[in-house]
Amino acid sequence: MASSTFSWSITPHTPSYPTPKPRNQPPFSNSIINNQSSSESGPQVRKPKGSPQLNRWSRARALRSGHKLERHSNRTAQAVELRSPDSPTDRAPLEPALKGRDGDDDVERIVGKSIYMVSDGTGWTVEHSVTAALGQFTHCLVDRVCPVSTHLFSGVDDVERLREIVKQAAKEGAMLVYTLADPFMAESAKQACKLWGIQSNDILGPLTEVVASHLGVSPSGLPRGAFGNNLPLTDEYFRRIEAIEFTIKQDDGALPQNLNKADIVLAGVSRTGKTPLSIYLAQKGYKVANVPIVMGIKLPKNLFEADPEKVFGLTINPIVLQTIRRARAKSLGFCDEMRSTYSEMDFVRRELDFAGKIFAQNPTWPVIEVTGKAIEETAAVILRLYHDRKHKCSMPRISKRY
What we know:
Layout: E1 6-11, H1 52-64, E2 77-82, E3 97-99, E4 108-110, E5 113-119, H2 124-134, E6 148-153, H3 159-172, E7 175-179, H4 183-195, E8 200-202, H5 204-215, H6 235-249, E9 264-268, H7 274-283, E10 288-292, H8 301-305, E11 311-315, H9 318-332, H10 336-343, H11 345-361, E12 367-369, H12 375-390
Helix pairs in contact: 3-4, 6-7, 7-12, 9-10, 9-11
């Protein structure tokens, strides 16, 4: 298997950058320079390029983090050598140093590696897949040793555009991740990356093949939402629309007489994320009502008459809640008296204790700790418990905090 080989050399002085002559390229090739060194002439080199905005941002992050930027009196230059596909397959790590720009030429930094994301649709699947994977490397991203930049190319539906993207990826030494429903496009991407030695990963293809084998049906080969792949409006679609309309009308304790019609009821003190969580669940097709717990205000009796297996309590760390409430009070322009009542620690703790007593009196309601959780994480816990109850699955003790 042919591959591109990158090697880096450091010269004691700033080299010249002669314009190389283009050579004939194989299919899916790019116009990257094949630098060859000989005894008669010095090596031809290419100066790595980077985004000036990214460079300024990286430098600012380093300064804010307290890192001392190195300044070299004897500036060094980095040279990259990309051999042709016929060259040996030994590979050196691609970690070029990039000199600062916009007045920062005396600052050297490590250039972040690139990930190209290619999709024949909106790119939602590939973008979220890459984001989830990068979440495993937060310990070294940006501020440490492995900065990464991502680039999304959506709506790629012809081979010519795909070829240009692969060419650019090869120039930057980028990794290519793609979700291409058309088998021909997916195979073209695979072969192009193999030809030029680019690391790549097909997210959609392997899973589609497994599902097709399991169902015994061939895939359509069309991206979601593409012309010819639009399905008629189904009952599921109308259920989701109905759920969203219901949830909006039931927000913040409105129309308590309809609590028995809700699939899920959320109860908690102010600023525990009831509304955004309700809307998120509604988009998945669940009718959600949320009821605020306010100290000194009696809760609607319909809350206690509703099916207790549909009610979920939300709680949060008092320090975090105070921080959120202070920001909220400031944005709403509360006066000093209202602000102190709403966001002072004593009041926050008393209100959380008041809600805790209500939860204790209704042990069937699961109490979910939302501190530090994203909306998606809290929603996943609620849906797991909801379906466990609906299908009579075994589950932990109901009164446990989740």
